[in-house]
Amino acid sequence: MKKIFLFLFFWIFCFSNERIVLLSPALNEIVFALGKCENIVGNTAHSDYPEKSKKIYKIGGYFSPSLEKIVSLNPTLVIMQENELKTKKELEKLGINTLMIEITSIKSIQKAILDMGNRLGAKEKASEISKKIDKAILSLKALPRTDKKILIVFGMEKEIPKDIYIAGNNLYFSEMIELAGVKNAFFSTSAKQPVLSLEGLISLNPEILIVLSPFSKKMQISKDEIKKTWASLPINAAKKGSIYVIDEDYSSMPSDRIVLFLDHFRKIIEND
Questions:
Q1: What is the largest CA-CA distance in the chain?
Q2: 64, 140, 197, 238: which has the highest count of C-beta atoms within 10 A?
Q3: Which domains, ranges and CATH numbers included, belong to the chain?
C-alpha cells in the first residue's frame, strides 16, 4: 500500500510540475481542452483561444518561435508541429524534452489528442474528446450520398483574391467532403496546397461553395459582404443560392474544436 501511495504521489507531482511550451494555436487549444492549462508557461502570438490564452507569455509566431524565449521559460516539455523540426533538434541538444505532433487529417488530430492526453496525464479527457469526434464523423457518414460538386475556398476579403486557396487532398477539409458523401469539385494527386485563378474556379463550376473566413470578424467584415462577393460569380452555386460563409475561428483550427466544424459542415450539406 505504501508503494502504491508513493507511486501515485510521484505521478501527481510530476504532472503538476510540468512546464509546457506550445508552438501552435491548435496545440494550445488541445492542452486547454485536456484541462492542463495551468501547466502552460508559453505559447505563440496568435494563441488567443480560450480567452485565458492571451495572457500567457508569447514566445514568437507560429513560423518564428524564439529559441531564446523558449529556453528562458525553463520548460520540461515543448510540444510542436512537424514544421518545427529545426527547433526540435536545437531544443533536444539543450536537453529539453519535445513532442512532435501531426494534425493534418481528422485521424491525426484524434491521435494527437490521445497522445497528448497520455503524455500529460489526461487519458480520460482525451478519450472523451476523441469519442465526440467519432460521433461527429458518424453523423457525416449518415448523410445521403450525392453527386453534388462542392468546393471549399479560403476567403477573408471583400474582393475575390487573385490567388484562390482551396481545399485539395492534403488536409482534413477534403476528408470532410468525402465523409459527407459529396464530390470535391477539385481533384489533384499533388500534396501541395492547391491555388486556383478566378477562371480556374469558374471552370470547376461547383454546386455548393463554402467560403472559410475565420478572421473576418477581427477584420470587421460581415458574412453578408463576403457572400455577396462570391455570389456574383457565374457558377451553379451562385445560381442556386448555395454559397455559405463560415466565419467562426474554429473553421481553420485542427484542435478539439474540429467537432464544431464537422457539425457546421454537416448542417450545410444536410440543408442544402
A1: 75
A2: 140
A3: 10-138 (3.40.50.1980), 143-271 (3.40.50.1980)
